[in-house]
Input
Amino acid sequence: MNNNADLLRHSCLFAFLTILTLINPVSANETSDSNSNLSIELAKQEALANTKYLLGNVLQKSKSLQETHGDFAPYGAALFKGGEVKYVWHTKPGKMTNEPAFSLPVLRQVLKSQAQSGKIVSSAVIYKYQKKGIKKSQLTIELEYQTGFAQGFSTEMIIDKNNKVSWGNNKQVPIEPKVFALE
Output
């Protein structure tokens, strides 16, 4: 009789430990999933905050270039880990290029090499476009972040007779990454 009671106790203990073992991983996975979702959300917020910071910096620089030089060629910008923004020039400020479209792949490649070395966290490629017969120029900025986030930002450049710049309508759209592209 004692043997049966011991066997029953061991069976109950074994069943209890088995159930406990099965429940614990489920709880750990739920915690892991919520931590993962939180990490993803924080990464998105970080990408948006840093690209917004770079965008503001680039808009100021573009305005300054236009007001100082009357025009500017495409250029790039890099946001370094410490928060410093540096610029990449294919054509010096104040100079123009006959083929601005040639500058874009060169700028992207320079920024891409910086991204691959881990030195920068965000990049921007900036260029102006003006349709024939349309008075307003359009400024386009390709923004990218190290997580693969990529967004195109386009805004009207309203340039008055004194060469002062104000910004008009703008639009933001997702784009394919070219600098922080996963290969």
About this structure: The longest helix spans residues 2-69. Helices lie at 2-69, 100-116. Residues 7-31 have pLDDT under 50 and may be disordered.
